[in-house]
Amino acid sequence: MTVHGSVSFGPRLIVTPTGRLRAALLVQPSRNIEKASPVWGEPGAVYDRALEQHEILRKTLEYFGVETTVVESRGSDPFEISAGDSSVLFEDGAVLMRLTALSRRAEVDRMETEFARLDVPLAGHIAGPGLLDGNNVLLAGKIAFVGANVGGNELGRSGFEQVARSRGYQVVEVKLASDVTALRAVAGAVANDTIVVGAGKADPQAFAGFRTIVVELGEAQAAGVLTLGERHVLADIRYRTALGAMRRAGVKVEAIDLYEFTKLGLTPSMLTLALARE
Hints:
The chain is α/β, with parallel strands linked by helices. 22% of the residues lie in helices and 27% in strands. It has helices at residues 47-63, 106-118, 154-166, 240-248, 259-262, 268-271; strands spanning 2-4, 21-27, 67-71, 87-90, 93-96, 122-125, 137-140, 143-147, 170-174, 187-191, 194-198, 211-215, 226-229, 232-236, 252-256, 272-277. The strands form 5 sheets. The protein has a 4-stranded mixed β-sheet. It has a 3-stranded mixed β-sheet with strand order 4-5-6, sandwiched between helices. β7 and β8 (143-147) form a beta hairpin.
């Protein structure tokens, strides 16, 4: 394990889901990334380039005042780098997920060990046979949006709903297009009242009451931004039209090259597990 900076949490973790990001955890890519099947129309990921881009992601987060912890990949599944899948954090602790992919189940145990080292308390877990991937959950304001047809099952979603409701969140299920692998691949919260979403990829009715920024179909993955603070996000630089749309809507956008991860359908928010926000 490599720790950059001294992580200090105090009594509260995710105070507000779109508040200033103070601490985050990343999982370093392994050579297994080159074995992953890319999304349609893209070439396979290149390990050395992925390492470089992942390091740029870490340095960018630190530039904006985020204390980062980087852990090594331990399993054989190339999608272990998708750090946001292992858990969902609330103000009082982390809720451990039970991942849909059998090959990734041990990641949650490893993350629990890291939480013990970082003094991150546990707030609950998804028990079997329930399944839910953390990147299929998006928190905004006091709403917990959950992808309804991917990345989990009904038992997992029901179990998470109980935990979220006990912490004051209303849970709203979002129906996703058949080619979407996770809610956070096509949607992101850029403010406590604003969602950016890929056109045709998520049921827009689910976001009733929120302002929405809709990015065009060919750039739907651009919506998977990592929120650095209210109306301040980190995004993949290759989606020029979508970035322009967000900026015109009053969102400050920091853009970096994450193409090796984009090839696999992974977004900045999926690669980053937010540990503390204020």
